[in-house]
Structure formats: structure tokens, C-alpha cells
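dumping this here so i dont lose it again. seq + smiles for zinc ion
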Amino acid sequence: MKTRVVLLLSGGLDSAVAYRVLEDRGFEVYPLFIDYEQKTKDQEYAAAYRLVGNTLKVFKISGLCASTSCDLFSGKNSLRAELHARNYIFLTMAIPYAKHVGATYVSLGIITDLLSDQEEFKDVGADFIDIASQLLNSYDLALSVPLYELNKITVLRLAKNFGLDWKKTYSCLLAEDPCGVCSNCKERAFAESLLDREVQSVRK
Ligand SMILES: [Zn+2]
């Protein structure tokens, strides 16, 4: 029997690539999408569904959005997109599902990225890895972060190698069409421009 892993799948580039990496390593992947009433949930869900179809499980959190200052919910076109402890919340929600399907791992497609401020996004840093691992270990589960040491350009290269159309993934924090100004859009545009340059220099 294949080792099972529950992967938090957001519909964005990183978790999409994490999905392919896990599959490539021979895991049986159980993708889990969290609808926390974020503004872009429909676009994110559609992107996640395009990738994995009916295997996508959806858990919903109601009311969280309206009770935080995070602009992911407000409809304001702002850059303040942090939801405190988001990855802790998602990871915790994945535990009962992981136990239910007999998974060994819970996986997150987080990366050490190029532009994100580690202070602002506390739940991707080394402390998060330690605490999340301890939490999962206490339920006889382990944390899997297959992209953790990578940056966006490497993730794009992987996407290319897997034949994954990253234009069909969805990472913008703010708007229906990628806004070009949020941290995710900037990071992705920067990585895409690097990759374009790579491809051009290979062609020369
Ligand atoms: Zn954006």
C-alpha cells in the first residue's frame, strides 16, 4: 500500500507543484482545500479542482473572515493579506482528516520565498516547522514540506519539468484577475521573468 499524505492544496503554484512532487515520490495524495471565506476562494478552488478533480476535499471555516483585520476578506484592494496563524489553523484542521484516511504525513507547499517578509508571515519559518512537527507527532503524524528549501524560480522549473501549466494555478491574494501588486503576484512575476531569461539564454 502506498504511503498516504494529506496535502493542503490552495490552487496556487506552490501547492500544485508540491502535489506533483509527492505523486512523483510515490505517495497517495489526499488534497484538502480550506474555504475560509477568503476573497479569492472561487478562483483558488477552481484552480485546485482543475489539478485534482473529485479527489479534492473541502473544509469550510465560517465567520473567521469577518472577525479579523485581514484584508483577504474585506474586498479592499490592500496589501495587508496576512491571516495570523493561517498555516497553524489549516494544519490543525488537516489532522482529523489525516487520521481518517490513514495518512502518515500532512503536507504544506510552503517555500522559503524571495520577497515574503518572514516576520510578517510567521507561520512559514523555522519555529513553525518545529511547532507544527511536534503537534503532528503527538498524533502519530509527520510534517512534509517538500518545497521548503526551494525558492520560486526553482518551483517554476519543477512545474515546467512536470509539464504543469502554472498559468492555470491561482496565487493572487487580492483580485479576480492577478493584480500584479500583491506580494504573491510580485514574487511570481519576478520568478517568471528569471525563468524567461533562462530559457532565452539556453536558446542563444
Ligand atoms: Zn495579486
